[in-house]
Amino acid sequence: MNGRAEALSHYDANRNEHLKALKNLCRIPSVSFAGYPAEEVKRSAKATAEWLKASGLNTVEIWELPGTYPCVYGEWLQAPNAPTILLYAHHDVQPPLREELWNSPSFEPTERDGRLYGRGTADDKAGIAVHAASIAAWLKTTGSLPVNVKVLIEGEEEIGSPNLTAYLQHYRNRLSCDFLVLTDCANYDTGKPSLTTSLRGLITMDVTVSALRSPLHSGMWGGPIPDPVAGLCKIIATLTDEQGRVSVPGLLNNVIPPSGEELADFKALGMTEKLFRQQAGLLEGVDIFAKNEELLVKLWREPAISVNAFRAGGTGAVGNVLMDSAWARIGLRLAPGMDPEHCTRLLVEHLNKVCPWGLHIEVTPEQGAKPWKTRPDHPVFEVAKRSLTRGYGNDAVCIGCGGTIPFVDHFTQILGDVPALLVGIEDPYTNAHSENESLHLGDFDKAVISQIHFFADLAESGL
Q1: What are the respective helix, strand and coil percentages of the chain, to the nearest 5?
Q2: Do residues 303 and 220 touch, judged by C-beta distance below 8 A?
Q3: Which CATH superfamily is domain 4-199+371-461 in?
Q4: In the CATH hierarchy, which fold is given to the domain comprising 201-255+302-365?
Q5: Once rounded to an integer, what is the mean pLDDT over residues 334-356?
Q6: Do residues 89 and 167 lie in contact, with contact meaning Cβ atoms separated by under 8 Å?
Protein backbone atom coordinates (compact mmCIF):
# COMPACT_ATOMS: atom_id res chain seq x y z
CA MET A 1 0.00 0.00 0.00
CA ASN A 2 1.44 3.31 -1.10
CA GLY A 3 2.28 5.47 1.90
CA ARG A 4 2.77 2.67 4.43
CA ALA A 5 6.50 3.35 4.84
CA GLU A 6 5.90 7.09 5.22
CA ALA A 7 3.24 6.48 7.87
CA LEU A 8 5.55 4.21 9.84
CA SER A 9 8.37 6.75 9.63
CA HIS A 10 6.04 9.52 10.80
CA TYR A 11 5.12 7.57 13.92
CA ASP A 12 8.76 6.83 14.63
CA ALA A 13 9.62 10.55 14.39
CA ASN A 14 6.61 11.70 16.45
CA ARG A 15 6.36 8.91 18.99
CA ASN A 16 7.40 11.12 21.90
CA GLU A 17 4.71 13.68 21.08
CA HIS A 18 2.04 10.97 21.25
CA LEU A 19 3.48 9.72 24.52
CA LYS A 20 3.36 13.27 25.89
CA ALA A 21 -0.30 13.55 24.84
CA LEU A 22 -1.05 10.25 26.58
CA LYS A 23 0.59 11.48 29.77
CA ASN A 24 -1.43 14.71 29.66
CA LEU A 25 -4.66 12.76 29.28
CA CYS A 26 -3.70 10.44 32.15
CA ARG A 27 -3.24 13.44 34.45
CA ILE A 28 -6.99 14.02 34.27
CA PRO A 29 -8.65 11.91 37.04
CA SER A 30 -11.61 10.87 34.91
CA VAL A 31 -13.13 8.41 37.40
CA SER A 32 -16.71 7.68 36.36
CA PHE A 33 -17.75 6.11 39.69
CA ALA A 34 -20.31 7.86 41.88
CA GLY A 35 -18.71 10.20 44.41
CA TYR A 36 -15.95 11.41 42.10
CA PRO A 37 -16.05 14.80 40.32
CA ALA A 38 -18.17 14.55 37.18
CA GLU A 39 -16.41 17.58 35.70
CA GLU A 40 -13.17 15.58 35.42
CA VAL A 41 -14.81 13.04 33.10
CA LYS A 42 -16.13 15.91 30.99
CA ARG A 43 -12.67 17.49 30.98
CA SER A 44 -11.25 14.17 29.80
CA ALA A 45 -13.77 14.04 26.95
CA LYS A 46 -12.78 17.54 25.85
CA ALA A 47 -9.07 16.66 25.92
CA THR A 48 -9.76 13.47 23.96
CA ALA A 49 -11.67 15.41 21.33
CA GLU A 50 -8.81 17.88 20.96
CA TRP A 51 -6.34 15.03 20.53
CA LEU A 52 -8.45 13.39 17.82
CA LYS A 53 -8.78 16.73 16.01
CA ALA A 54 -5.01 17.14 16.14
CA SER A 55 -4.61 13.67 14.60
CA GLY A 56 -6.28 14.95 11.44
CA LEU A 57 -9.85 13.67 11.63
CA ASN A 58 -12.05 16.10 9.75
CA THR A 59 -15.09 15.60 12.01
CA VAL A 60 -14.86 15.37 15.80
CA GLU A 61 -17.84 15.76 18.14
CA ILE A 62 -18.62 15.35 21.83
CA TRP A 63 -21.87 13.44 22.31
CA GLU A 64 -23.75 13.74 25.61
CA LEU A 65 -27.20 12.26 26.12
CA PRO A 66 -29.15 13.42 29.21
CA GLY A 67 -27.92 11.89 32.46
CA THR A 68 -24.79 10.36 30.95
CA TYR A 69 -21.07 10.98 30.76
CA PRO A 70 -19.92 12.16 27.31
CA CYS A 71 -18.66 10.06 24.43
CA VAL A 72 -16.28 11.43 21.83
CA TYR A 73 -16.87 10.66 18.16
CA GLY A 74 -14.63 11.31 15.17
CA GLU A 75 -14.53 10.25 11.54
CA TRP A 76 -12.62 10.33 8.25
CA LEU A 77 -14.74 8.94 5.38
CA GLN A 78 -12.94 9.84 2.17
CA ALA A 79 -11.79 6.43 0.90
CA PRO A 80 -14.27 5.44 -1.84
CA ASN A 81 -15.02 1.71 -2.13
CA ALA A 82 -12.88 0.96 0.93
CA PRO A 83 -14.26 -0.68 4.10
CA THR A 84 -15.20 1.33 7.17
CA ILE A 85 -13.69 0.51 10.56
CA LEU A 86 -15.18 1.65 13.87
CA LEU A 87 -12.41 2.05 16.45
CA TYR A 88 -13.44 1.91 20.12
CA ALA A 89 -11.71 2.87 23.38
CA HIS A 90 -12.81 4.58 26.60
CA HIS A 91 -11.56 7.65 28.45
CA ASP A 92 -12.96 6.98 31.94
CA VAL A 93 -10.83 5.16 34.51
CA GLN A 94 -11.04 3.18 37.72
CA PRO A 95 -10.61 4.87 41.12
CA PRO A 96 -6.97 4.93 42.30
CA LEU A 97 -7.80 2.72 45.33
CA ARG A 98 -5.11 2.84 48.05
CA GLU A 99 -2.86 5.78 47.24
CA GLU A 100 -0.27 4.67 49.80
CA LEU A 101 0.41 1.54 47.73
CA TRP A 102 1.31 3.44 44.56
CA ASN A 103 5.05 3.75 43.96
CA SER A 104 4.39 7.06 42.18
CA PRO A 105 1.30 9.30 42.23
CA SER A 106 -1.67 7.59 40.58
CA PHE A 107 -2.50 10.54 38.32
CA GLU A 108 1.06 11.63 37.58
CA PRO A 109 2.21 9.25 34.82
CA THR A 110 5.77 8.16 35.53
CA GLU A 111 8.21 6.20 33.35
CA ARG A 112 10.10 3.47 35.14
CA ASP A 113 11.93 0.40 33.79
CA GLY A 114 10.36 0.59 30.35
CA ARG A 115 6.81 1.03 31.63
CA LEU A 116 4.53 4.03 32.13
CA TYR A 117 2.85 3.95 35.55
CA GLY A 118 -0.40 5.70 36.39
CA ARG A 119 -4.14 5.19 36.42
CA GLY A 120 -5.45 4.87 32.86
CA THR A 121 -2.04 4.53 31.24
CA ALA A 122 -3.08 1.13 29.87
CA ASP A 123 -6.80 0.88 30.66
CA ASP A 124 -7.78 2.48 28.42
CA LYS A 125 -6.26 5.84 27.54
CA ALA A 126 -3.50 3.97 25.74
CA GLY A 127 -6.27 2.66 23.46
CA ILE A 128 -7.12 6.27 22.58
CA ALA A 129 -3.43 6.90 21.92
CA VAL A 130 -3.19 3.92 19.53
CA HIS A 131 -6.11 5.27 17.50
CA ALA A 132 -4.88 8.88 17.46
CA ALA A 133 -1.28 7.98 16.64
CA SER A 134 -2.07 5.49 13.86
CA ILE A 135 -4.55 7.87 12.22
CA ALA A 136 -2.10 10.78 12.43
CA ALA A 137 0.67 8.67 10.91
CA TRP A 138 -1.34 8.37 7.69
CA LEU A 139 -3.12 11.71 7.56
CA LYS A 140 -0.02 13.77 8.38
CA THR A 141 1.98 12.14 5.58
CA THR A 142 -0.21 11.00 2.67
CA GLY A 143 -3.15 13.20 3.61
CA SER A 144 -5.48 10.20 3.49
CA LEU A 145 -6.21 6.81 5.04
CA PRO A 146 -6.39 3.52 3.10
CA VAL A 147 -9.77 2.82 4.75
CA ASN A 148 -12.63 4.82 6.19
CA VAL A 149 -12.39 5.33 9.93
CA LYS A 150 -14.86 6.15 12.67
CA VAL A 151 -13.76 6.53 16.29
CA LEU A 152 -15.95 6.17 19.39
CA ILE A 153 -14.41 6.92 22.80
CA GLU A 154 -16.80 6.07 25.64
CA GLY A 155 -16.96 7.72 29.08
CA GLU A 156 -18.70 5.06 31.19
CA GLU A 157 -17.00 1.74 30.49
CA GLU A 158 -15.59 1.35 33.99
CA ILE A 159 -19.08 1.52 35.53
CA GLY A 160 -20.47 -1.10 33.18
CA SER A 161 -21.40 1.04 30.15
CA PRO A 162 -24.97 1.61 31.44
CA ASN A 163 -25.82 4.06 28.66
CA LEU A 164 -23.77 2.80 25.74
CA THR A 165 -26.75 0.95 24.26
CA ALA A 166 -28.67 4.24 24.24
CA TYR A 167 -25.78 5.92 22.40
CA LEU A 168 -25.56 3.05 19.89
CA GLN A 169 -29.28 3.19 19.19
CA HIS A 170 -29.41 7.00 19.02
CA TYR A 171 -26.40 7.27 16.69
CA ARG A 172 -26.80 3.96 14.87
CA ASN A 173 -26.56 5.48 11.40
CA ARG A 174 -23.47 7.51 12.29
CA LEU A 175 -21.77 4.41 13.73
CA SER A 176 -22.53 1.97 10.90
CA CYS A 177 -19.40 0.10 9.85
CA ASP A 178 -18.03 -3.05 8.26
CA PHE A 179 -15.66 -4.02 11.08
CA LEU A 180 -15.33 -3.17 14.74
CA VAL A 181 -11.97 -2.83 16.54
CA LEU A 182 -12.21 -2.63 20.33
CA THR A 183 -8.89 -1.67 21.87
CA ASP A 184 -9.58 -2.57 25.50
CA CYS A 185 -8.15 -6.05 26.00
CA ALA A 186 -4.84 -7.66 26.87
CA ASN A 187 -2.14 -9.62 25.12
CA TYR A 188 -1.38 -13.14 26.23
CA ASP A 189 2.06 -12.00 27.34
CA THR A 190 4.36 -9.03 26.89
CA GLY A 191 5.29 -8.86 23.22
CA LYS A 192 2.76 -11.57 22.26
CA PRO A 193 -0.02 -9.95 20.17
CA SER A 194 -3.46 -11.43 20.74
CA LEU A 195 -7.01 -11.34 19.46
CA THR A 196 -9.60 -12.04 22.15
CA THR A 197 -12.41 -14.31 20.95
CA SER A 198 -14.30 -14.95 24.19
CA LEU A 199 -15.18 -12.99 27.32
CA ARG A 200 -16.73 -14.05 30.59
CA GLY A 201 -19.88 -12.29 31.76
CA LEU A 202 -20.52 -10.97 35.26
CA ILE A 203 -23.21 -10.69 37.91
CA THR A 204 -22.66 -9.04 41.29
CA MET A 205 -24.75 -8.78 44.42
CA ASP A 206 -24.63 -7.30 47.90
CA VAL A 207 -25.36 -9.74 50.72
CA THR A 208 -26.21 -8.49 54.22
CA VAL A 209 -26.76 -10.86 57.15
CA SER A 210 -28.24 -9.45 60.40
CA ALA A 211 -29.06 -10.70 63.88
CA LEU A 212 -29.35 -7.63 66.15
CA ARG A 213 -30.59 -4.05 66.17
CA SER A 214 -27.11 -2.94 67.33
CA PRO A 215 -23.81 -4.52 68.46
CA LEU A 216 -23.69 -6.11 71.93
CA HIS A 217 -21.00 -6.76 74.56
CA SER A 218 -19.55 -10.12 73.50
CA GLY A 219 -18.98 -11.19 77.11
CA MET A 220 -22.46 -10.34 78.31
CA TRP A 221 -24.28 -11.76 75.26
CA GLY A 222 -21.91 -13.98 73.25
CA GLY A 223 -22.77 -17.68 73.15
CA PRO A 224 -26.56 -17.88 73.03
CA ILE A 225 -26.81 -15.41 70.14
CA PRO A 226 -25.61 -16.43 66.67
CA ASP A 227 -22.79 -14.35 65.24
CA PRO A 228 -23.89 -12.86 61.87
CA VAL A 229 -20.25 -12.53 60.80
CA ALA A 230 -19.70 -16.26 61.27
CA GLY A 231 -23.05 -16.88 59.57
CA LEU A 232 -22.00 -14.93 56.49
CA CYS A 233 -18.71 -16.83 56.42
CA LYS A 234 -20.65 -20.11 56.45
CA ILE A 235 -22.78 -18.90 53.55
CA ILE A 236 -19.74 -17.90 51.51
CA ALA A 237 -18.08 -21.25 52.20
CA THR A 238 -20.92 -23.04 50.37
CA LEU A 239 -20.28 -21.23 47.10
CA THR A 240 -17.17 -23.22 46.11
CA ASP A 241 -15.78 -26.68 46.74
CA GLU A 242 -12.33 -27.66 48.02
CA GLN A 243 -10.85 -27.12 44.54
CA GLY A 244 -12.34 -23.65 44.12
CA ARG A 245 -15.02 -24.81 41.67
CA VAL A 246 -18.44 -23.17 41.74
CA SER A 247 -20.70 -25.47 43.76
CA VAL A 248 -24.06 -23.69 43.56
CA PRO A 249 -26.58 -26.23 42.19
CA GLY A 250 -27.51 -25.67 38.56
CA LEU A 251 -24.99 -22.96 37.76
CA LEU A 252 -22.77 -25.17 35.61
CA ASN A 253 -25.56 -26.77 33.57
CA ASN A 254 -25.30 -24.56 30.47
CA VAL A 255 -21.56 -23.89 30.30
CA ILE A 256 -20.23 -24.40 26.76
CA PRO A 257 -16.97 -26.38 27.00
CA PRO A 258 -14.08 -25.49 24.70
CA SER A 259 -13.84 -27.49 21.50
CA GLY A 260 -10.98 -29.82 20.71
CA GLU A 261 -9.55 -27.18 18.39
CA GLU A 262 -9.71 -24.54 21.13
CA LEU A 263 -8.05 -26.88 23.63
CA ALA A 264 -5.25 -27.48 21.14
CA ASP A 265 -4.82 -23.70 20.77
CA PHE A 266 -4.70 -23.28 24.55
CA LYS A 267 -2.05 -25.99 24.83
CA ALA A 268 0.04 -24.38 22.09
CA LEU A 269 0.29 -21.16 24.13
CA GLY A 270 2.60 -22.97 26.54
CA MET A 271 1.10 -21.82 29.84
CA THR A 272 2.79 -23.36 32.89
CA GLU A 273 2.01 -23.28 36.58
CA LYS A 274 5.30 -21.46 37.22
CA LEU A 275 4.52 -18.73 34.67
CA PHE A 276 0.96 -18.34 35.93
CA ARG A 277 2.18 -17.93 39.51
CA GLN A 278 4.70 -15.32 38.39
CA GLN A 279 2.16 -13.34 36.36
CA ALA A 280 -0.44 -13.40 39.13
CA GLY A 281 2.02 -12.57 41.92
CA LEU A 282 0.85 -15.61 43.88
CA LEU A 283 2.50 -15.98 47.26
CA GLU A 284 4.73 -18.99 47.82
CA GLY A 285 2.88 -22.03 49.10
CA VAL A 286 -0.59 -20.87 48.03
CA ASP A 287 -2.51 -23.61 46.20
CA ILE A 288 -3.45 -23.28 42.56
CA PHE A 289 -6.51 -25.08 41.18
CA ALA A 290 -5.26 -26.26 37.78
CA LYS A 291 -2.10 -27.01 35.84
CA ASN A 292 -0.60 -25.80 32.59
CA GLU A 293 -3.20 -25.28 29.80
CA GLU A 294 -5.99 -26.29 32.23
CA LEU A 295 -5.33 -22.94 33.90
CA LEU A 296 -6.46 -21.19 30.73
CA VAL A 297 -9.61 -23.32 30.50
CA LYS A 298 -10.48 -22.42 34.07
CA LEU A 299 -9.68 -18.74 33.51
CA TRP A 300 -11.42 -18.26 30.16
CA ARG A 301 -14.15 -20.90 29.86
CA GLU A 302 -15.34 -21.71 33.38
CA PRO A 303 -17.28 -19.59 35.91
CA ALA A 304 -15.64 -18.22 39.04
CA ILE A 305 -17.02 -16.78 42.28
CA SER A 306 -15.12 -14.06 44.14
CA VAL A 307 -15.75 -12.23 47.39
CA ASN A 308 -14.96 -8.71 46.22
CA ALA A 309 -15.41 -7.09 49.63
CA PHE A 310 -16.37 -8.03 53.20
CA ARG A 311 -17.22 -5.77 56.09
CA ALA A 312 -18.22 -6.18 59.72
CA GLY A 313 -17.50 -3.27 62.02
CA GLY A 314 -14.84 -0.72 61.10
CA THR A 315 -11.11 -1.00 60.50
CA GLY A 316 -9.18 0.27 63.51
CA ALA A 317 -12.38 0.64 65.55
CA VAL A 318 -12.47 -2.83 67.05
CA GLY A 319 -14.12 -3.67 70.36
CA ASN A 320 -15.06 -6.87 72.16
CA VAL A 321 -18.48 -6.96 70.60
CA LEU A 322 -20.94 -9.25 68.95
CA MET A 323 -21.63 -7.48 65.65
CA ASP A 324 -25.18 -6.75 64.61
CA SER A 325 -24.61 -7.51 60.89
CA ALA A 326 -22.08 -8.35 58.21
CA TRP A 327 -21.93 -7.46 54.53
CA ALA A 328 -20.19 -8.91 51.51
CA ARG A 329 -20.02 -8.16 47.81
CA ILE A 330 -20.18 -11.35 45.74
CA GLY A 331 -19.15 -11.50 42.09
CA LEU A 332 -19.79 -14.38 39.70
CA ARG A 333 -17.93 -14.47 36.39
CA LEU A 334 -20.06 -16.24 33.78
CA ALA A 335 -18.62 -18.61 31.21
CA PRO A 336 -19.97 -18.70 27.64
CA GLY A 337 -23.40 -20.35 27.69
CA MET A 338 -24.47 -18.93 31.07
CA ASP A 339 -27.40 -16.50 31.19
CA PRO A 340 -27.11 -13.61 33.71
CA GLU A 341 -30.79 -13.57 34.73
CA HIS A 342 -30.97 -17.33 35.22
CA CYS A 343 -27.70 -17.40 37.17
CA THR A 344 -28.78 -14.47 39.34
CA ARG A 345 -31.96 -16.32 40.27
CA LEU A 346 -30.09 -19.53 41.12
CA LEU A 347 -27.49 -17.71 43.22
CA VAL A 348 -30.07 -15.66 45.16
CA GLU A 349 -32.10 -18.81 45.87
CA HIS A 350 -28.99 -20.60 47.10
CA LEU A 351 -27.91 -17.76 49.40
CA ASN A 352 -31.32 -17.62 51.03
CA LYS A 353 -31.50 -21.40 51.37
CA VAL A 354 -28.14 -21.86 53.11
CA CYS A 355 -28.40 -18.86 55.49
CA PRO A 356 -28.05 -20.46 58.95
CA TRP A 357 -29.64 -19.95 62.35
CA GLY A 358 -32.63 -17.94 61.22
CA LEU A 359 -30.44 -14.93 60.51
CA HIS A 360 -32.02 -12.22 58.41
CA ILE A 361 -30.51 -12.07 54.94
CA GLU A 362 -30.93 -9.39 52.30
CA VAL A 363 -29.58 -10.00 48.81
CA THR A 364 -29.45 -7.10 46.32
CA PRO A 365 -28.42 -8.15 42.80
CA GLU A 366 -27.04 -5.68 40.26
CA GLN A 367 -27.52 -5.71 36.51
CA GLY A 368 -25.68 -8.59 34.88
CA ALA A 369 -23.48 -8.74 31.79
CA LYS A 370 -23.60 -11.58 29.29
CA PRO A 371 -20.55 -13.62 28.33
CA TRP A 372 -19.49 -13.34 24.70
CA LYS A 373 -17.88 -15.66 22.19
CA THR A 374 -17.10 -15.44 18.49
CA ARG A 375 -15.62 -17.78 15.91
CA PRO A 376 -12.52 -16.26 14.27
CA ASP A 377 -13.40 -17.70 10.88
CA HIS A 378 -14.13 -14.42 9.08
CA PRO A 379 -11.24 -13.44 6.74
CA VAL A 380 -10.76 -10.16 8.65
CA PHE A 381 -9.27 -12.14 11.56
CA GLU A 382 -6.47 -13.40 9.34
CA VAL A 383 -5.83 -9.85 8.13
CA ALA A 384 -5.67 -8.62 11.72
CA LYS A 385 -3.35 -11.45 12.77
CA ARG A 386 -1.05 -10.64 9.87
CA SER A 387 -0.94 -6.96 10.84
CA LEU A 388 -0.30 -7.76 14.50
CA THR A 389 2.47 -10.18 13.56
CA ARG A 390 4.11 -7.46 11.47
CA GLY A 391 3.83 -4.88 14.22
CA TYR A 392 5.07 -7.05 17.07
CA GLY A 393 7.53 -9.23 15.19
CA ASN A 394 5.88 -12.21 16.89
CA ASP A 395 3.09 -14.49 15.69
CA ALA A 396 -0.36 -13.31 16.74
CA VAL A 397 -2.65 -15.73 18.59
CA CYS A 398 -6.33 -16.03 19.46
CA ILE A 399 -7.08 -16.17 23.18
CA GLY A 400 -9.94 -15.94 25.66
CA CYS A 401 -10.33 -13.41 28.44
CA GLY A 402 -11.52 -14.00 31.97
CA GLY A 403 -12.75 -10.43 32.26
CA THR A 404 -15.96 -8.81 31.11
CA ILE A 405 -16.73 -6.14 28.53
CA PRO A 406 -20.50 -5.84 28.98
CA PHE A 407 -21.36 -4.09 25.77
CA VAL A 408 -19.66 -6.24 23.12
CA ASP A 409 -22.76 -8.33 22.47
CA HIS A 410 -25.00 -5.25 22.20
CA PHE A 411 -22.41 -3.43 20.11
CA THR A 412 -22.20 -6.10 17.43
CA GLN A 413 -25.94 -6.82 17.37
CA ILE A 414 -27.06 -3.19 17.08
CA LEU A 415 -24.57 -2.56 14.30
CA GLY A 416 -25.73 -5.58 12.32
CA ASP A 417 -23.57 -8.45 13.64
CA VAL A 418 -20.38 -6.94 12.29
CA PRO A 419 -17.15 -8.86 13.01
CA ALA A 420 -15.52 -7.62 16.21
CA LEU A 421 -11.74 -7.58 16.65
CA LEU A 422 -10.84 -7.31 20.34
CA VAL A 423 -7.23 -6.20 20.80
CA GLY A 424 -5.31 -4.35 23.48
CA ILE A 425 -2.00 -3.38 24.94
CA GLU A 426 -2.30 -4.62 28.48
CA ASP A 427 -0.15 -7.55 29.54
CA PRO A 428 -0.12 -9.85 32.60
CA TYR A 429 1.88 -7.25 34.53
CA THR A 430 -0.33 -4.23 33.82
CA ASN A 431 -2.26 -4.33 37.12
CA ALA A 432 -5.36 -2.84 35.52
CA HIS A 433 -7.91 -1.83 38.21
CA SER A 434 -5.26 -2.23 40.91
CA GLU A 435 -2.54 -0.01 42.31
CA ASN A 436 0.52 0.67 40.12
CA GLU A 437 -1.28 0.18 36.81
CA SER A 438 1.24 0.40 34.00
CA LEU A 439 1.74 0.29 30.24
CA HIS A 440 4.65 -1.53 28.61
CA LEU A 441 6.06 1.16 26.34
CA GLY A 442 7.55 -1.31 23.88
CA ASP A 443 4.15 -2.93 23.38
CA PHE A 444 2.57 0.50 23.03
CA ASP A 445 4.82 1.22 20.04
CA LYS A 446 4.09 -2.19 18.56
CA ALA A 447 0.34 -1.72 18.93
CA VAL A 448 0.45 1.58 17.04
CA ILE A 449 2.63 0.10 14.31
CA SER A 450 0.25 -2.88 14.03
CA GLN A 451 -2.73 -0.60 13.50
CA ILE A 452 -0.84 1.43 10.89
CA HIS A 453 -0.28 -1.87 9.06
CA PHE A 454 -3.89 -2.97 9.60
CA PHE A 455 -5.31 0.03 7.78
CA ALA A 456 -3.18 -0.83 4.73
CA ASP A 457 -3.57 -4.62 5.00
CA LEU A 458 -7.35 -4.36 5.21
CA ALA A 459 -7.50 -2.10 2.16
CA GLU A 460 -5.30 -4.50 0.21
CA SER A 461 -7.38 -7.54 1.26
CA GLY A 462 -10.38 -6.46 -0.78
CA LEU A 463 -12.81 -7.27 2.06
Answers
A1: 35, 25, 40
A2: no
A3: Zn peptidases (3.40.630.10)
A4: Alpha-Beta Plaits (3.30.70)
A5: 97
A6: no
